[in-house]
Each structure stands twice: as structure tokens, then as C-alpha cells.
Amino acid sequence: MRYRPGSQPDHHTRIAAAALLFVLALVSSFTKAHAHGDVHLQIELITPKIESAPTAELHVKRADLHRLDENFMAALADLERAEKINPALDTIFMTRGRTQFEAGRFEQAIPALNRLLEAKPDHPEGLIFRARSYRALDDHAAAMKDYDHLVAVMPLPAPDCFLERAASLVALKRPQDAVRSLDEGIDRLGNLTVLQQAAMQIEVDVQHYDAALARTERIMAVLQRKEVCLERRGDILAAAGRQSEALKAYADALNALALLPEFHRHVQPMRELEARLKTYLGAQASNVTQFPSTNQANTTSP
Fold this sequence. Notes:
elongated, mainly alpha, Serine Threonine Protein Phosphatase 5, Tetratricopeptide repeat, 74% helix, 15 helices, 2 domains
């Protein structure tokens, strides 16, 4: 999913996230602990090989393990040793660029990635990490060149490529181009909710409400559960001044919520959703100030 730098998550995003938060936290903690233990073991196994017969490839492999372990200084030291053995090995520069990026040293990441891309200009990982480095430095124009190149050379770019490119276009005050970028991703990858939601949010931000409403229909077409999207539709209608239609969307959302099994309805995010919907429906149609502002919303951002 992606994200939009500088924006805040709204209650729609929190609903989707909170339902899985506890499980994801447990899985993440277990996975990270297991992965780090495995990384330490791999470092222990590869170190004697390096000591007995050092090669550039082995140093790069251990550097990448140190990177996974977030021991960035050790990773960079191994890459220095690898470069002394074989300065033409391109994986040195990819690993160095990624290590510097993950260490938050974006200015240092770019020269390493430049070295890689001079030799392999279509290298997908090099392009994405250089684009991200430029974005982190607020050089969105440079980032755009790499995103455009990446999308052109990859048969099936990851959704993040389109989300991040759209975020840079928004930063460059080109929201219509950002929407077109996301639509290109939808054309190539299919009707992905994450891309539709990102495009919808941009359309709401520029007050293209009819286009945003049309997207809610396309989003709901692929969703089994529609209550959150129906609430979002109500928010957009309310912002557009279509109060009676907004009330109907909120009522539809409440009805969809009532059809859920009891154990789904009683989780905290769904209880909060039900309370909001009842508040909206209890408001007088003329009192638009009781409706949520779409400016507070940010369902998905690139």
C-alpha cells in the first residue's frame, strides 16, 4: 500500500488497519526475531569461508546479511573489501546503495546507484532505490525520470511503482498526471483497490467529486465487504453538497454492517464505524457541518 508523504491516515484507513493490527504485530515480531536469528547463523557460517578464501562475492553476500541485520557499518566495510578484490562487480554498488538508503543516508545512496545504473541502466532494483532516494531528498523531478524508466522496462511493475510515481507527481503539483499514472497501473495490473483508492483520494483533494464517486463503484465491485467504502462514498457526497444521497450511502453502509456475522460487527473498528454512521444519519440533512470533511480523509496514498 503504499502511502502519501506528509498526509495523515483517516478513520477509513484505521478501520482496515486496526482489524489486523494485533495479528500483524505478532507475525511481524515473530518473523523479525526468526529472521535475525537466521541472519546471525548465516553470518557465522560464511565468515570462516571468507577468512579461508575471500572473494568479492562472499563479501557482498555477508554485507547483505549485515544489512538485513541493520548493522550498516559492517555491511559497508564488507563492500569496501569486495570492491578492492573486484571493483567491476555490479552487486557491490546495488548493495551499497540499498544499505545507504536503509541507513537513511540518501545522498550517499545515489552515487552508488549511479555506478550500478551506468553499467546496467535498466536494473529495476537500482532504479527503484535511486527514485526513492531522490524522493527522500524532495527531488521529485529526478525521481520521476527513474519511475518513468522503471515502468517502461518492467513487464509488470509492482503497484508501489505507480503509487510512488503518483506521489511525486502530486508533490510537483500535477494531480491530473498523478491520476493518469495510477490509471496506467490499473490498466496494466488490473482493478487493484490500492490504486483505485489512491486515485480517488487525489480526485477528492482537487474536488473532482463525480470522478471520485465513479471510483467508489469500481472499488466496491471487487470488495466482498462494502461498509467502509459506502461510508467513504457518503463522505464524498456530503462534501459535494449532495446531502440526501450522502444519507442514503450512510444508511446502505449501516445495513451492510448489520449483515455481518456478530463476531465481525463487535470488533472495535466496526463498533466505531457503526457509531459514526448513526451520528451521520441522526444529523439533519441541512446541517452539513455534522458530516465528515473529505479533506480529513486519506484512504490510500502512493
